């Protein structure tokens, strides 16, 4: 064990002794974990970290889990922990870091992301929500969409337009916003499945102190990209077992219910089984590349593969189920805490999977990204590149 | 049904060294012009480049050290297969150094291996190249004399040793037949892929050395290892097609722009890049399972065949299409890859045959 790993192990032991998980509230434990520099161990000292290697974090989490302590709140505060926090480390002031990081880690303040707009989807830099300076404050007006968790959020990361006279990328600024204030209205956005995972957020004369501006005025695109890059790092994960996920459900149905099997569907069943297995192996290979410190360029393309697979497989499942495939488990408008592909019926899976090629970058945009950044093909023509935002056709 | 946590899906530095030396040699000795020439002037005997490749040890990779071989594993053999897919040189690597060598080693005919390892002898398993498993018997043995006809045998032109499976009731026996001996006629046939030419074999009372014991497991091992490593060859074919077409799309201009700047093409390239990336993982897993003798090899090989054979064909078809007119010419090498890819898709079982077999292996029967 390296010296750093030893140091971290001892500090975690000390933390667990001082705050026994069995008699400590989760939020209090997490706050203490932050104070001990064991929240984001790669962050600087005093801001939840010790300035050590990022790989040590999994050792800490495993040690805490073993002692019965709480897991990181990646599920309910993923945007805060995985996106807002690293962005504050990269671009925030010490004051902002002190104000937010501890609460983000402990779950005292849940964070949502106010980026996408009705008119700025794939072209995120075209956001039109305006922030106008008023003394020590900014006044924000506009509409955001596809905001997950906005109805539970205490704070938000916001990208808004502060200058319409310069080209779109140059006129954006990044803010931290208090979600509990007048002028913020959150409405559920009911989607194709009947439920509402996401929200629309309307901002009317919302006041944001200039002290909550992250990065310079006009630097918002750069700061937002740091956030989005962290999103890509946060995605991924460990090696999976064969037949985990949706393929396990479909193959399991085929295996367990002879009445469903039809010889004319067997080749397609096996084609999908093979595709699931190959995606699993490719994910495993990427993980091995990452572990060697040499991430492969393939990762950019994997999202395309997962979307294609989930959509084809879920479509096949409805046909496989035949009569049962005509039924649906639940149309009621609900607010799920997380997407549960596997806990619902085939119709839900089919409909929800349609989003896989849209959310987090459409498959069309992902193909452009792969073609241009990985394969080195010439970029798309961008007619609005040097055009002041106010002159852009929208 | 568990994942194999020990599977290494990457390439080791030693494997990359092997790749470099094979690629260098092939680039010097197996030019596209030389590879295309076999369509007009079929080889008599084995291509000279095979002697060079055997000289750097490719024939010896899967032969154990005690029998004069390199004692390497299927992981190294997969590197050679990838490079021979990228080049499509006419060599008996897959048919002799992988399939025949594996059969002989499993059948205990180790006295034949030294000459194979040295490249002095070339062997072929006398089965149609399309066979995924041992097909219905077409050769009979009568008092040690073999008679019958075996069609479309890959690697038979140029081979001096034929491994002839003869099914007798529940037993499969192997007979080793020297090509020059009486009653053996090997007739090369025009093949879709002349870089791996087929031959029909006619046996009329031919004498052969009969090996002891049931050899069905040895034949299955040869075909399985062959299928696992064919996936690496298919990966090599697909990689060449992707990279060559990509280069072309960056330089070829129409309407005043590189054709690779059009989204219609860029998106096809992105999809192909994804498929080739996935094929690499599948081929690597199959090679690694073969190298470790993993119980998951049959699943891994059929997964890899199902996936990689289709990707290889798609890459070669895209290569022809996206090159436009020049892709259809005899002069440009794209056609060599299309012919290899399409023939490889049928070789050692089609994708559909492997998927059907896979259903049995993973408990997903057709009905």
**What's the mean pLDDT score of chain A?**
93
Q: How many individual domains of chain A? A: 3
Strand content of chain B: 5-15%
Q: What is the general shape of chain B?
A: globular
Order of neighbouring strands in the sheet with most strands of chain A: 1-4-5-8
Radius of gyration of chain B: 20 Å
State the total count of DSSP E strands of chain A.
8
Q: Strand share of the residues of chain A?
A: 5-15%
Which stretches of chain A are low in confidence, meaning pLDDT under 50 for 5 or more residues running? 233-237
Note the run of SSEs of chain B as H and E: HHHHHHEEEEEEEEHEEHHHH
Short description:
The complex is a heterodimer of chains A (394) and B (367). Chain A is α+β, with helices and mostly antiparallel strands and 394 residues long.
Describe the protein in words.
The complex is a heterodimer of chains A (394) and B (367). In chain A, the strands form two sheets. Chain A has a four-stranded mixed sheet with strand order 1-4-5-8. A four-stranded antiparallel sheet of chain A has the order 2-3-7-6, with no helix packed on it. In chain A, a hairpin with a 2-residue loop joins β2 and β3. The longest helix of chain A has 29 residues. Chain A starts with a helix and ends in a 20-residue tail after the last helix. Chain A contains eleven helices and eight strands. By secondary structure, chain A is of the alpha+beta class. Chain A has three domains: 104 residues, Acyl-CoA dehydrogenase/oxidase, N-terminal domain (Butyryl-Coa Dehydrogenase, subunit A, domain 1), CATH 1.10.540.10; 113 residues, Butyryl-CoA Dehydrogenase, subunit A, domain 2 (Beta Barrel), CATH 2.40.110.10; 140 residues, Butyryl-CoA Dehydrogenase, subunit A, domain 3. Helix content of chain B is 50%, strand content 15%. Chain B is built from eleven helices and ten strands. In chain B, the strands form three sheets. A four-stranded mixed sheet of chain B has the order 1-4-5-8, with helices on one face. In chain B, a hairpin with an 8-residue loop joins β6 and β7. The chains are: A alpha+beta (394), B alpha+beta (367).
């Amino acid at each position: 064990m390296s010296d750093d790993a030893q140091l971290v192990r001892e500090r975690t032991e000390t933390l667990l002794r001082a705050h026994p998980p069995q008699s400590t509230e989760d939020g209090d434990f997490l706050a203490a974990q932050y104070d001990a520099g064991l929240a984001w161990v790669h962050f600087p000292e005093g801001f939840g970290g010790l300035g050590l290697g990022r790989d040590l974090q999994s050792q800490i989490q495993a040690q805490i889990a073993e002692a019965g302590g709480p897991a990181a709140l990646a599920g309910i505060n993923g945007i805060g922990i995985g996106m807002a926090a690293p962005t504050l480390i990269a671009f925030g002031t010490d004051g902002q870091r002190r104000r937010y990081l501890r609460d983000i880690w402990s779950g005292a303040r849940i964070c949502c992301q106010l980026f996408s707009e009705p008119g700025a989807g794939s072209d995120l830099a075209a956001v039109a929500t305006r922030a106008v300076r008023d003394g020590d404050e900014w006044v924000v007006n506009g509409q955001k969409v596809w905001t997950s968790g906005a109805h539970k959020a205490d704070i938000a990361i916001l990208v808004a337009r502060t200058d319409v006279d310069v080209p779109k990328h140059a006129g954006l600024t990044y803010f931290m916003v208090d979600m509990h204030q007048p002028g913020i209205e959150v409405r559920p956005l009911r989607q194709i499945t009947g439920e509402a995972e996401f929200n629309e957020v309307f901002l009317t004369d919302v006041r944001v102190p200039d002290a909550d501006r992250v990065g310079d005025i006009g630097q918002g695109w750069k700061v937002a990209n740091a956030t989005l890059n962290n999103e890509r790092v946060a995605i991924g994960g460990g090696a999976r077992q064969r037949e985990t996920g949706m393929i396990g459900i479909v193959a399991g149905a085929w295996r367990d219910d002879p009445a469903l099997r039809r010889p004319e569907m067997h080749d397609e069943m096996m084609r999908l089984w093979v595709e699931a297995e190959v995606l699993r192996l490719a994910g495993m290979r990427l993980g091995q590349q990452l572990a060697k410190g040499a991430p492969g360029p393939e990762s950019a393309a994997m999202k395309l593969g997962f979307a294609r697979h989930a959509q084809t497989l879920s479509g096949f499942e409805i046909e496989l189920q035949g009569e049962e495939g005509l039924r649906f488990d639940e149309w009621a408008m609900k607010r799920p805490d997380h997407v549960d592909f596997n806990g619902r019926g085939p119709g839900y899976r089919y409909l929800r999977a349609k989003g896989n090629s849209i959310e987090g970058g459409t498959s069309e945009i992902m193909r452009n990204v792969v073609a241009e950044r990985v394969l080195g093909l010439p970029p798309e023509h961008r007619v609005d590149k040097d055009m002041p935002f106010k002159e852009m056709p929208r | 049904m568990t994942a194999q946590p020990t599977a290494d899906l990457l390439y080791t530095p030693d494997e990359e060294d092997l790749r470099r030396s094979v690629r260098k040699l092939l680039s010097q000795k197996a030019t596209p012009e030389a590879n295309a020439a076999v369509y007009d002037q079929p080889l008599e005997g084995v291509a000279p480049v095979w002697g060079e490749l055997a000289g750097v040890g490719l024939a010896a990779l899967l032969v154990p050290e005690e029998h004069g071989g390199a004692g390497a594993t299927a992981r190294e053999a997969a590197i050679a297969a990838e490079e021979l897919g990228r080049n499509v040189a006419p060599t008996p690597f897959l048919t002799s150094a992988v399939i025949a060598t594996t059969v002989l080693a499993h059948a205990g005919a180790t006295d034949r291996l030294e000459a194979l390892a040295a490249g002095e002898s070339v062997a072929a398993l006398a089965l149609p190249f399309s066979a995924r498993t041992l097909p219905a018997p077409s050769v009979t043995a009568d008092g040690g004399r073999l008679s019958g006809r075996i069609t479309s045998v890959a690697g038979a032109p140029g081979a001096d040793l034929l491994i002839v499976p003869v099914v007798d009731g529940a037993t499969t026996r192997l007979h080793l037949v020297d090509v020059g001996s009486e009653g053996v006629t090997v007739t090369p046939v025009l093949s879709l892929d002349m870089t791996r030419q087929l031959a029909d074999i006619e046996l009329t009372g031919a004498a052969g050395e009969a090996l002891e014991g049931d050899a069905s497991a040895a034949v299955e091992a040869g075909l399985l290892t062959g299928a696992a490593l064919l996936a690496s060859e298919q990966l090599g074919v697909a990689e060449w097609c992707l990279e060559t077409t990509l280069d072309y799309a960056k330089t070829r201009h129409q309407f005043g722009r590189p054709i690779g700047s059009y989204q219609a093409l860029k998106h096809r390239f992105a999809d192909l890049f994804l498929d080739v990336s996935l094929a690499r993982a599948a081929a690597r897993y199959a090679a690694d399972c073969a190298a470790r003798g993993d119980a998951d090899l049959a699943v891994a090989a059929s997964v890899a065949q199902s996936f990689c054979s289709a990707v290889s064909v798609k890459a070669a078809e895209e290569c022809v299409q996206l090159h436009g007119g020049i892709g259809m010419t005899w002069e440009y090498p794209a056609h060599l890859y299309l012919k290899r890819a399409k023939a490889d898709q049928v070789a050692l079982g089609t994708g559909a045959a492997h998927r059907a077999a896979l259903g049995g292996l993973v408990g997903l029967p057709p009905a």
